[in-house]
Amino acid sequence: MIGQIVGKISFSDSRYVILDVNGVGYKVFVSTDTLSKVKNNKSQLTFWTHLVVREDVLDLYGFLTKNELDFFELLISISGVGPRGALSILSLAPPETLKKAISSGNTSYLTQVSGIGRKIAEKIVLELRDKIGVIESEGGNLDQEAEAVMAMEALGYSNREAREALRKVPTDITETGEKIKNALKNLSGKNHK
Q1: Tell me: the pLDDT tens digits for 79-106?
Q2: Is 22 in a helix, a strand, or coil?
């Protein structure tokens, strides 16, 4: 099994990167968060990886941290959650935020992922709550985050754009209105470049 891979990105798409490792290009599926962090990086990168082997498929999933990989593997251990679904869940928010949602039993947060319905979200919460323990919510309320995303969607931004912009807001900003203002500044700066 391939546990780690080191190389330079030679190509990136909306769901994967091609990692050049000594002249061999490996297709590595990544979350949107990881993609936004590495897309224009021309230096050597290290990915923690999980190889999915099926009859007709060899897919490699890559993560910048061991924590992301561990959470991905927890998700795919649940019946009904495949690797692509787990990657979509990781694209929703960082593992710490997802763990808070799971430990607090917030299934509506997980159902924001395309393909994750209420039943699967409840199953994720039920099976993972004990494994991740109860995590105290510090520096961010999931309801506030959902409210901020909905407000930005009402302004015409996609769910993905809103989440990416909110992810860049400094963690010391805790008030929802201020988070939205800061996220909008991030987006307007991006559009003018």
Answers
A1: 889 999 999 899 888 888 888 888 888 8
A2: coil
Cα torsion angle, 131, 51, 23, 10, sign: negative
Question: How many CB atoms within 10 Å of residue 2?
Answer: 13
Query: Quick check: 193 pLDDT over 50?
Result: no
pLDDT in tens, 55-88: 998 999 999 999 999 999 999 999 889 999 999 8
**Window from 3-7, 27-31, 77-81, 187-191 with minimum mean pLDDT:** 187-191
Q: Per the structure block, which two tokens stand in for 117? A: 């319905």
CA–CA separation, 169 and 180 (whole Å): 9
User: Was domain 4-63 assigned CATH 2.40.50.140?
Assistant: yes
Choices 3.30.450, 1.10.20, 3.40.50, 1.10.8: CATH for 142-191: 1.10.8
CB 33 within 8 A of CB 90: yes
Number of neighbouring beta carbons within 10 Å of residue 46 = 12
**Residue 48 amino acid letter:** W
User: Where do the domains of the chain lie?
Assistant: 4-63, 66-132, 142-191
- Indicate if the pLDDT at residue 134 is higher than 60: no
**CATH T-level assignment (fold) for domain 66-132:** DNA polymerase; domain 1 (1.10.150)
What CA–CA distance (Å, rounded) separates 166 from 145?
8
